[in-house]
């Protein structure tokens, strides 16, 4: 005989895990939508990186102008040459500060998309762990010969878990890429080359290229995740609805069995004296009168 309490507990765990997965995948689809939040934010940040990179041209031009003037001032020690060198270095320094100013806002603007991706990553990891446990319950249900519910729950849970795990992998990489971009900007701001290093334009270009690579890769991962999650929406919903129906049926079956047991017990157990019916005073008086009439009839006979 099937253990109804066990069935109810296991079907509930399976339904809860699948429902949680459906909710997590729904958040993934919403936040990674092409016209919303993460994808749109990455597109805007790539435009910022492109704008920042263009400053390398001006810095490079001023750097090339400053190098010979700096050499001439050192070789001649002529006051006029020294003044021209200092003026060229000042112009170069100003241009590089402008580049720093363009790079600066990129990092805080990446904070929200990074938080969104990190939150999705954590949600998917939690869901994956719940589905892993649910697989044990689904497997046990599939093995119960007396269980008359759906027998394909293990396959359903395993299929949804594969979708969740693939999404988590992509979202985690996208989050890591965005975080790497934030670090690149931070290092550029905190440790810039010295003005006379002849490395200013090269550093801007290198920073631009690294940022573009990280953000483009992050956006590519976002889009790679979004497609499969959207295409599998109906499959996840079907598996979840089936599990919820099975859980509701198991709950109803256990309740019906409990109610039946209570009714059987109530019909076979002797009632205590305190619960027995007590005659009213009028009923007792009627009984005495009837008893008395019966006695008189017997005497007369």
State the main characteristics.
rod-shaped; 301 residues; 9 helices
Describe this structure in words.
Residues 212-301 are annotated as: Disordered. Residues 220-238, 249-261 have a biased composition (Basic and acidic residues). Residues 275-284 have a biased composition (Polar residues). The chain has one domain (4-255). The model is unreliable at 273-280 and 293-301 (pLDDT under 50). Helix 2 crosses helix 5 (111-143). By secondary structure, the protein is mostly helical. It is rod-shaped. It has nine helices and no strands. The two termini are 68 Å apart.
Task: Quote the average pLDDT.
Answer: 86
Total domains, how many?
1
Radius of gyration: 40 Å
Instruction: Estimate percent helicity.
Output: over 70%
Strand tally: 0
Q: Which series of helices and strands comes N to C?
A: HHHHHHHHH
Helical stretch tally: 9
Compute the separation of the termini in Å.
Answer: 68 Å
* Biggest sheet statistics: none
Global shape = rod-shaped
Please mark out the parts with pLDDT under 50 across 5 or more consecutive residues, or reply none.
273-280, 293-301
Q: How much strand content do the residues show?
A: under 5%
Helix-strand makeup class: mainly alpha
Biased composition (Basic and acidic residues): 220-238, 249-261
Region (Disordered): 212-301
Biased composition (Polar residues): 275-284
Give the arrangement of secondary structure elements.
Elements: H1 4-31, H2 37-76, H3 79-103, H4 106-109, H5 111-143, H6 153-190, H7 200-231, H8 233-268, H9 281-300
Helix pairs in contact: 1-5, 1-6, 1-7, 1-8, 2-3, 2-5, 2-7, 5-6, 6-7, 6-8
């Amino acid at each position: 005989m099937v253990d109804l309490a066990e069935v109810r507990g296991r079907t509930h765990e399976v339904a809860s895990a699948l429902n949680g997965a459906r909710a997590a995948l729904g958040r993934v689809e919403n936040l990674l939508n092409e016209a919303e939040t993460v994808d749109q934010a990455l597109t805007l940040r790539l435009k910022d990186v492109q704008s920042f990179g263009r400053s390398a041209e001006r810095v490079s031009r001023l750097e090339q102008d400053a190098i010979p003037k700096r050499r001439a001032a050192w070789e001649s020690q002529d006051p006029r040459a020294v003044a021209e060198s200092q003026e060229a270095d000042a112009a170069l320094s100003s241009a590089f500060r402008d580049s720093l100013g363009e790079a600066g806002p990129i990092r805080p603007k990446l904070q929200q998309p990074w938080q969104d991706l990190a939150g999705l990553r954590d949600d998917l990891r939690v869901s994956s762990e719940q589905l892993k446990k649910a697989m044990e319950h689904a497997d046990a249900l599939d093995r119960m010969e007396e269980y008359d519910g759906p027998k394909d729950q293990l396959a359903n849970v395993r299929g949804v878990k594969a979708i969740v795990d693939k999404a988590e992998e992509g979202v985690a990489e996208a989050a890591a890429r965005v975080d790497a971009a934030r670090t690149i900007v931070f290092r550029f701001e905190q440790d810039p080359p010295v003005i006379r290093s002849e490395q200013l334009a090269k550093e801007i270009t290198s920073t631009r290229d690294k940022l573009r690579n990280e953000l483009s890769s992050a956006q590519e991962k976002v889009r790679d995740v979004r497609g499969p999650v959207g295409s599998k929406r109906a499959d996840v919903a079907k598996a979840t609805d089936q599990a919820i129906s099975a859980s509701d049926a198991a709950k109803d079956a256990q309740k019906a069995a409990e109610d039946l047991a209570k009714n059987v017990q109530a019909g076979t157990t002797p009632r205590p004296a305190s619960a027995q019916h007590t005659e009213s005073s009028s009923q007792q008086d009627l009984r005495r009168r009837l008893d008395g009439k019966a006695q008189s009839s017997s005497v007369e006979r």
